[in-house]
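Please review this one:
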Amino acid sequence: MTLFLRPTIYRNKVNFHKFHQYSTKSNTLKKLRIQKFIITGSTLFATGSIFYFFINNDDTYKSFASFSLIPVKSTISSDKFTATPIHQIIPQSKTTSIFRLKLSAPLQEPFPVSSCVHVKDPSLQIMREYTPISPIVKNDELLYIDLLVKRYENGQVSRYIHGLSVGDLMEIRGPVITFQYRENMYKALGMICGGTGITPMYQIIKHILNTPSDKTKISLIYANQSIDEILLRKELDILSKKHPDQFKVYYTIDNAPSSSSWNQGIGYITSEMIKQNMPPPSSSSLSNIDDKNSNKDDDNSILILVCGPDGLMKSISGRRARDMSQGRLRGLLKKLGYNENQVFKF
């Protein structure tokens, strides 16, 4: 490029000294601009290369993100899915683990009882419900949600979750109310569940027993394949010993243990187990459950909660309807005289 400069003229003479001075300054500025462009371009190229490396290297990216160099907003919402980091994975059995999720800020309100969160598999755009097994707790100024998840071979979301590692992000939405419990709304609660169906029951049990003014009596029948598969057994036993007059638990397992120390149920849940461990059915419906005095000493204030795999639901109460409503009451509870207002299916 040709540089044209207008020389300074004094009395029709060219000031060559001034011309040389301007030329030198212009060349210097031009060199500085070129050097600045080269440095800036090199910096952008290096930054882009590093970012590309991290994004395309899964292990490095996970480690990079887990140290919070990449900011992650993890205050969950009921309106949208939020990517929430996995802080810890705690094995409970061969197929089940607790996934502890870390929140970046406390929720404005505690989780309602009973409520769940939706977990999404982003690759398939499908979701499943999981009930937090503990309230939001404060620990070293960090807040957590614990999800108890069992891996099923035909369960796409459960397999996806079990494929995640500490530092990975889990997309969750919630809380979503599944059964709105109120203090002393029943005289007695019966609970029948199997496997990870214990999670909504455990949430309600802890809430009631941690509320001194709630006098609701709780009885639980919990079915599993083996002793090793009884999830949260330690926690349940501690609660039953601490509150012997308010909470009772009865376990039944498919496979009898070799030792003779097992003194609880063996096999599927039967009518006899229900008769011995659940509050008896009422002759009338629970139309008065919204009454403030619904904890009065009568037979109307009882409810049976049922949660578990399809086989258990079909046998005990019948499955929920396709539109996820309660559907018709069937199974053992129907045969034993319970009515549809006395049974709730998760």
User: Anything to note?
Assistant: Residues 16-56 form the longest helix (41 residues). The chain has three domains: 14-55, 82-177, 188-345.
